[in-house]
Amino acid sequence: METVRPLVGIIGGVGPSAGLDFMRNIFANTRAVKDQDHIDSVLISCPALIPDRTEFLLNEGKPGYENPAYGMFECAKRLYRTGARYISVACNTAHADHIFTPFRALVEDSLPGVIIINILETCASHAKETGAKRVGLLATRGTYKSRVYHEYFTAEAGFVLYEPDADAQGKIHAAIYSEDFGIKAHPDPVTAKAKTILKDEIARLAGQGAEALILGCTELPLAINPSDSPLPLLDPALLSARRLIRLSSPEKLIP
Hints:
By secondary structure, this protein is α/β, with parallel strands linked by helices. The protein folds into 2 domains: 7-119 and 238-252, 3-Layer(aba) Sandwich (Rossmann fold); 120-235, Rossmann fold (3-Layer(aba) Sandwich). The chain has helices at residues 16-28, 53-58, 68-82, 97-110, 119-130, 141-146, 166-177, 192-208, 236-248, and strands at 7-12, 41-45, 84-89, 115-117, 134-138, 160-162, 212-215, 233-234. The mean pLDDT is 95.
């Protein structure tokens, strides 16, 4: 009888299309010629349970803004009951310290045997391995404000992190969040306006000296692919999907 392997679990819904794209990355990076070759995996998408991460970070401490960590933990419990033991959250902003640290503590205290994959840590490790040192960052306002990427792409590690100015950050945030043209509201297809904003900011970061680009929001890979960027792309969701395969079934990871 074949050995039963722990399931891979994805906390999606943050946003829903980004979670689906994360799961597609798992399928696309698995050696498989038939259905049965794929690894066992579960995507949970419960957006009503998890408040907006950027809104929480921008309004932390104000009444009415619950920490998304608790909804993420509820999703982790549901994944745990399915047998998932390797779990990742398909959201960059959710990895800000004020969200991710209490979330991880709740998991460690209550869900024995679960390994949480930090997608930012995974991205920084990959960048270091590939020699990418001067990197630009596209992200939400919450991610910029929390400076969460600075915790991993440190000057001590040899990184130089390029961020857009405040005006450009607002444009990038709108390209993700705008109800009229943003990726969250229009994920398939992504609007031409959102793509144009992002391409312009990528070109600006390249002009500042960036040699690689972090897609620091899990919605961004829905809009930007390698042909859209003059810089090599660092996609934390893709890199983390590959890490989940490597942990669960290393022989199934496509090089």
